[in-house]
Fold:
Amino acid sequence: MGKNSEMGLIGRKIGMTQMFDAAGHAHGITVVELGPNVVLQGKTTTGPDGYSALQLGYGTRKVARVTKAEQGHFKAAGEGVLPRFVHEIRVPDATVAAHPVGSVVSVGDVFKAGIRVDVMGTSKGRGFSGVMKRHNFSGFKRTHGVHEYHRHGGSIGTRLTPGMTFKGVGMPGQMGDSRVTQQGLLVHGIDTDRNLVYIKGGIPGFDGANVVIRHAVKKPRLPRK
Structure:
């Protein structure tokens, strides 16, 4: 795929819509404003960090909301560069050499329609949730004999055997608001003029949340013959 086959970009989730393919079938599409990103720093395996990566910045913010240390770090990328979001993408040394500090990477430089991507974001917070919502438990029957136990999780262990509650048993608790990676999503199309990428299906996060999109690490499974 070229020098940018292992690149990724920072963007912002716009929302969902639907688009039609060549056969006239409608698909649920997530619209993401992806980039442009500014290269803030490059790291190589021979450098002091010991690994190769690109530090990218997206968006802008006021000078008053940027610390002096951050201003000094961003200054190397050019005057007036004050990104709102900063993320590091692990890439080969050759990709780091091809993207010097201060260069701008756009969606058309990295992605194209028809490829598979991984999307990283923070899922929506659902608060404290029960086992039926959090773990998809079926619950109990709503009939006579079941008294105030309709949405409980059932037995989690007895006092005799095993005499303990095993790790990993589904319990009520905090749901969502965690880092999620959605793998192998299809890029339906891109709009280089507006820095938009159209991804088939849903992605983590609320509308307006920042996301990171990179080329898929895993190859898609081939259909059975």
